[in-house]
Every structure is written in structure tokens, then in C-alpha cells.
């Protein structure tokens, strides 16, 4: 090799790391002195075992698309074939199992064909006979280093190519999730946000439409309309960010604001909508090429429902435009509502009820077949005023589901239980039943109150006269949670009734797992007993099954004498309904 070529080879070898394996001390010292002029990073060992340990312990970076392999632990291994214990060929075979990429040069005093062929099979890069011929050794080294450098260059190229592709993919991803004009997240982005909602999350979606946008298009043309939309989007984004909403553009002239919470703060939402209209309705802007200010007006459709969220928002928006309203909140009966959602109305009623102590428990008697009262179910009512100013008592069907979304349910439930327990103290010989949902059972304030009051009652009267009617959730009835609740309130043997059996999520397996004392057959079955024979057979089956497990049955919605007699003949233990007794503030006993 020429002096220039040797100099170039030294430059290439400078940053490579080499492992040299030779047991012959004389050959080792001679070759080491040659290699030292070329390699700055070199490990020298005398046995295959030591070489293998170093190779294994080194951090081997397998070539991949993740990163270029410029920090390969050993770029080159030079190994003698004749080594004590572990031969050079055995060492190479073991190394190849770990990494097939490391360049290997074999030195050997053997020129037999079998050694040469085995070396080729193991993928060595060069074969040099001893004693070493300096020029031939440099030529073999040059070829091996050239291959190493080409491989590194290839890896670097692949890595850079991957980085470039990632940049392009990120750019395409951004384009697919953002509006090209305003840079706001688009409808696809909004839909992805909505798919990540949890079951109990309450989305507040405000669908905002720029009014009469097609008029702008006719009057000013496309380019001016682009400027109008950009200016409006910028103002909307700033306002949304300030109010804690995410802003989206879902069509050229439609936008959406989204906020997600586990409850509805109706006062805040109402204030947010009012503020939004104050800032962006009748919004004036100056646009180039337009001599006078452009005035933008908006209409808003609002929904808080996860299900069919866009459909409901557009329904509210369309209704607002038809009625000339600035905004409308979606309800199931939009034709009967004003722009202030029914939800807002009931939230106010509930708040007043709690402030004025207007929650009133009604008590409906449960009788036996002889018509004797055996217990009372406590039913929640809200005291309100009708249009004539007269007192009316509203059932939970109007407000209970809403109260869960507006964070008022816990206060209502606690107050109801508190009043029923107060009644229990006033009538210690009467059995009362109260409804408990999973949410009530998990409420630590309710647990603490019941534990305290039931302990006081038992200490005073020697027993507890309270029955729990368990309401199922969509996920079913958590038996272990109920047992833990009873243990915590120190009422382990409380009478338990499964409420509304035969509808919703109820199933016969609950009887086996919970071991209730009572089963309440849902009114949706009882009401059709005198007109549907199949329903009668189903009720009879429920009664028989419950009795076989020594569980008493109570029929709800007993509304006439004929049904009462049918149920009595079936062996039903308790009867509840308007035929045997209406709910009342006072007990009939």
C-alpha cells in the first residue's frame, strides 16, 4: 500500500474499536505493535473465553432504524484460530450467535481447506496466514475497514431517512387534525377527544355558527371570507383559552368549544355562554380590501350529552335559529323549552330546596295479605310551587338524574336519609325502608351518619327497624361493596331488599350472591298481570324461586283489587301500591 493509502486507513481506523485475540506472546506483541499505530481503542486478550466474556459484556447495538450504530462496542475482531480450550472457530461461532454484524479477521498458521471453508461459513471478513505478511495484512485490514465504514454510512443514511420520514408524517398528521386556514384543531380532532371520555364525564359542547356566512361569500368573495374566518377564529381561540375551553373548527363557518367535567356547573356554563355572546356576537373586524367594518353574528347550540353529541348540538342550533334565539341548550322536548335548559331550572329548584329545607319524605305503606301495614317505604319529594302558587310535591323522576350531573345528588340523598332516620326515632316500633344506590353506599358522610344514628337507636331500643332497598347500577350489584358497607355501619344483619326485580339489570343470580331478605317485584310486571297471562306466569316463577331461597316477596304497583287477589293467591308476602295505600307525609298507623 502507498503511504497515502496507509495514512487514509489510519484515519478510518482511528475511531473504531478492536478486539485482538492471540495466545502466542511473540505474535501478540508483534501484531499489537502494528495495530497500535492504526487503532486508538483496542482490547487484547490471550484466550477465547476472555474474548467471549468481553464480547458479551460489551454493549452490542444491533443495526436498526432506531439509531445509527456509531457506538458499536467492537467494530472489528482479529482472532487466531489456534487458541487453548476454546478454538478460534468456536469463539467466532459463539460471537455470531450474538451479533452477525461485527467484522472478523482470522489469522492462522493453517492453510487447510476445511479451516478456510468453515471461516467462510461463519462469515469472516478476511483470512491472513501466519507469519503475517505486513502488506497482505494491511490489504485485508483495508477491505474490512472499508466494509465497516460503508455499513456505518448506510446506517447513518437509513437513520436520517427515517428522521425525514417522521418529520413528513408529523406534518401530515398535523394537517389531518388541524384546519389548514386557522390552524385550529378540526372535527376529527374533536371526535378523538370525545372517544376518550370516561362514562361519568359530562361534556359541555358549544356549537358556534357564524350567521349568514353564505352572504359573506356572495358579497366579498372567497379570499375576504378566509380573512374573516381567520380573524374570528383567532378571537374565539383567545376567549376559549381564557375560559378554560378547547376550541375546534368543524366546518368553514362552524366552531366548537369543549369542556369536560364529572358534573355540570350550570351557573358557570350559563355565564360562559353569556360572556361568549358578549365578546363574539356582533363582532366587528377590519378586513383588507373591504372599506367598512365587517360585522359577525353567531348562534350557539349547546349539549351536555355524550350520546349523539353532534346530532343534539345541531338540533339545539337549528332550533335556536328557527326561534330567533342566540343560544339553546338541547333537551328531548325542544319545542317546549326556552333557551334556558330545563336542567338549569331544576338545578335552581334543588338548590332552593336544600337552602329552605324543602325536601320532604313521603311514606307509602306495605301491607300483608290481610291489609295490615307491615312497613313503610320512604319516598323522596321536593316541595315546590305550581303556577297558582300552591304547594306541590315533585317526585324524583323530574330531578334525580339531573342532580347527579350537577353535584347535588349527594346532598339530596343525605338529607333524605337524615329525615327518614328522624322519623324512625319518632316511631321506634315501625319498620322503615329506604332506597340506597351504589353512590349512597360509597358516600362516607352517609356511612358515618348511619353508623352513628343506628348505634344510638339500638342502644335506646335494643334493635334497629330500618330496611335497605338496594338499587342496581349498570355494572350490576357489587355484593362485596354492600357487605363492607353493612359492616362499616355495624348493621351486618340488616334486612335487604333487591328493588325493581324483573327489570333493568336484575337477575336471579343476585339472590344467590347477596342473600337478601326481601325481593321487590317491579311494577312494570305487576301492572300487566290482569291482561297478560305470560306476565302472570313470570311473576309466579319469581315468587316460587324467591320462596325456595326463603326470601320474602313484595309486589309494587298494586293498583286494583283483581291484581291484589291474584298476587295473594300466588303467595306474595307484601303489597305496595295505590290500591293498598298512597304515599303520604304522615303514617297511617
UniProtKB/TrEMBL annotation:
Q: Which GO terms describe its molecular function?
A: cyclic-guanylate-specific phosphodiesterase activity
Write out the entry's keywords from A to Z. Answer: Phosphoprotein
Task: Give the sites modified to 4-aspartylphosphate.
Answer: 80
> What are the residue boundaries of the EAL domain, all occurrences included?
343-589
Classification via Pfam families: EAL, GGDEF, Response_reg
Q: Which residues form the GGDEF domain?
A: 201-333
Please state every residue range assigned to the domain named Response regulatory: 17-145
Looking up CDD domains in the UniProt record yields:
EAL, REC
Source organism superkingdom: Bacteria
Q: Which GO terms describe its biological process?
A: phosphorelay signal transduction system
Keyword Cytoplasm included in the entry's annotation:
no
> Which protein, by its recorded name, is this?
EAL domain-containing protein
Please give the organism. Sulfurospirillum barnesii (strain ATCC 700032 / DSM 10660 / SES-3)
